[in-house]
Automatic annotation (TrEMBL):
Keywords: Signal
Source organism of the structure: Caldilineaceae bacterium SB0675_bin_29
Record bears the keyword Signal: yes
Signal peptide: 1-22
Entry-linked SUPFAM superfamilies: Periplasmic binding protein-like II
Biological-process GO terms, alphabetical: peptide transport
Record GO terms (molecular function): peptide transmembrane transporter activity
Name of protein: ABC transporter substrate-binding protein
Length: 601
């Protein structure tokens, strides 16, 4: 079944992503010109803290700053999403526009024939921001630190995949895997879906007594320390301020241009209305996702703002399909029939028309409808998809009556207890708030007393991880862009953790759902290349189980209307200039920084 008619033109850009995982590495970058004239002296931290508005990029945050004194990239609840993630160097970087994986810190990262051994060669000349060389020792230290401590970062992923890491020389590391993994480079290091494995400086962290409680925050000592083009200089109540590292190794060796902005600011100003007013006054250069109506108001009052597309629907197709995340371990939603009630009530077209103002399409799939994923979408029978494209209130009523529910007044009841539902939403993500508003109203009309509850980001994540929720408006099946495993693995589990205990992939999942056959299928798929005919057979069966059980209920294909301001800076990524994905909250943003240009020159 095809649902691409309204987004086909720009989604076709993603067809070349088919080659991203197995294709040869991108050719070495041409030598980059210096950003500043050789006669210009390097600025001090104080100089750049006092940089003018014309020399500053200000980026929007949608929720208040939490954990401002914790910049440990390996623990939950830290502030790394306020610049550390977005302004740090990456080992390799997937370019959504070209479909190539660009080498960054890595000179190369190549597998043996069966993808069970990967050899990393680092570039020469990489340094930490204090001038210490970045070497294989840092890679091995960071990897083994997480392998040996179950409270840190990627411990469980490494436990599943990595047997050992070996140093060959100062610039060469060998990853010995426990099993074949064709996706290792893409999955771990390339910012496939807004995340990479972090490396920390061994010469600092090797003296840390407890890395799980270490906050990695001391501005006078240069912490948090990275290798990137910006370093943290100041933290206020709802702002982080970063200043340019003029000694950035990538500019020194001619790999990248030294970025022109002298100062970067991450700033939270309040609700979408306040953020919009701030943007109109040119006090933002990049915004998080806003609604179509807000974008219309923005450009009407400040025409210097642009979107990814210059005409309807204006949006960039986000790789994370939207879903209603269901806690499958609590009553009554541990009964798949009751989950089907929620699905039958959901009017997805109304969600598109109201929540998305017509800028997206229905989402009966747990993955994005990129052209590269269409062949997997086609594995789902048309009659199955039909159950997700039209509401079926009669079918929902039939299930409830069979379960012993009766309609009493406005709501369905059983044993004197009203049927209700709480939908938790990450406060400040207007797209998900609006989806929850529309669906809650649909449920209310049907007779389920649904309420939307806004939660601050850290609390929302904590509740999701520990199972302290009924449902959430979210994106938790996010992962696949070229093949199905990354999405299917989000539902893999060996067990359902007790309520209140954290989920931990691959052993358990956020949906607290376990199906032994599904898990076995996902494990088999994990070792297959995406040209293997068996991949399609196993995926078809896994999707059959998914659509029978619906542990997560797909709602919509996501869109992102992410505006950029051209008053002070130009050359932002657009559909006609697609050198990097146009988002300000992922590691890929470091790929934008050397490219934007000042309008004052």
């Amino acid at each position: 079944m095809k649902l691409l008619n309204r987004l086909t033109v720009f989604l076709l850009l993603f067809a070349i992503l088919l080659a991203a995982c197995g294709a040869p590495e991108a050719p070495a970058a041409a030598e980059a010109p210096a950003a500043e004239s050789e006669s210009e002296e390097m600025g001090t931290t104080e100089d750049y803290l006092n940089a003018s508005r014309e020399e500053t990029v200000i980026l929007d945050r949608t929720s208040p700053l939490q954990g401002s004194d914790n910049w440990n990239p390996y623990v939950r609840g830290s502030a790394v999403g306020w610049g550390y993630t977005e302004f740090s160097d990456v080992l390799t970087l997937l370019n959504y526009g070209s479909g190539e994986i660009e080498n960054w810190l890595a000179e190369s990262l190549t597998p043996n024939e069966d993808h069970s051994v990967w050899t990393l060669k680092l570039r020469e000349g990489i340094t930490w921001q204090d001038g210490t060389p970045f070497t294989a020792d840092d890679i091995i230290f960071s990897t083994e630190l997480q392998m040996n401590n179950d409270a840190l970062g990627q411990h469980f992923a490494y436990q599943e995949w990595i047997e050992s890491v070996e140093k060959v020389d100062d610039l060469t590391v060998i990853y010995n895997l426990k099993k074949s993994n064709v996706r290792f480079k893409l999955e771990r290091f390339s910012d496939n879906i807004c995340g990479v494995d972090y490396f920390v400086p061994k010469h600092i962290w090797e003296d840390v007594e407890d890395p799980a409680t270490f906050k990695n925050f001391d501005l006078e000592k240069g912490l948090p320390m990275g290798t990137g083009p910006y370093k943290l200089a100041k933290v206020t109540e709802n702002e982080t301020i970063w200043v340019r590292n003029d000694n950035w190794w990538a500019a020194e060796i001619g790999l990248k241009k030294l970025p022109e902005p002298k100062k970067l600011v991450m700033s939270y100003t309040g609700t979408e209305e306040v953020r919009l007013a701030t943007a109109i006054e040119d006090d933002y250069d990049g915004l998080h996702d806003i609604t179509f109506g807000s974008f219309q108001a923005l450009v009407a009052q400040n025409p210097n703002w642009i979107a990814f597309q210059d005409e309807m629907p204006f949006v960039w197709p986000d790789p994370c399909a939207r879903s209603l995340t269901v806690n499958n371990s609590i009553e009554p939603w541990n009964d798949k029939d009751m989950r089907w009630v929620l699905n039958y009530v959901m009017d997805r077209q109304q969600i598109i028309d109201i929540a998305y103002e017509g800028t997206s399409i229905m989402g009966p799939y747990p993955f994005p409808l990129y052209p590269s994923m269409q062949k997997f979408a086609d594995l789902v029978p048309t009659e199955t998809i039909a159950k997700f494209t039209q509401p079926n209130v009669a079918a929902a009523e039939e299930i409830l009556l069979a379960k012993g529910y009766e309609k009493s007044g406005d709501y369905w009841e059983k044993d004197g207890e009203e049927l209700s539902l709480e939908i938790q939403v990450y406060e400040g993500i207007s797209e998900l708030e609006r989806v929850a508003d529309v669906f809650a109203e649909q449920l209310q009309r049907f007779g389920i007393n649904a309420v939307k509850v806004n939660l601050i980001g850290g609390t929302w994540v904590e509740y999701l991880d520990t199972g302290n929720y009924e449902t959430q408006s979210g994106w938790q099946t996010c992962g696949s862009i070229v093949e199905p495993w990354n999405t299917l693995r989000t539902l893999r589990a060996d067990e359902v953790p007790p309520q209140g205990e954290r989920h931990q992939l691959p052993h358990s999942n956020r949906f607290r759902w376990h199906n032994a056959e599904f898990t076995e299928l996902v494990d088999q798929i994990s070792e297959l290349g995406w040209d293997d005919p068996l991949l399609f057979e196993l995926t078809a069966r896994a999707l059959e189980i998914y659509y029978d059980e619906i542990p997560a209920i797909p709602t919509a294909q996501s869109k992102k209307l992410v505006p950029f301001n051209t008053t002070y800076w130009t050359n932002w990524p657009t559909i006609d200039n697609y050198y990097q994905r146009p988002v300000i909250w992922c590691p890929s943003f470091v790929g934008i920084l050397p490219e934007i240009e000042s309008t004052s020159k």
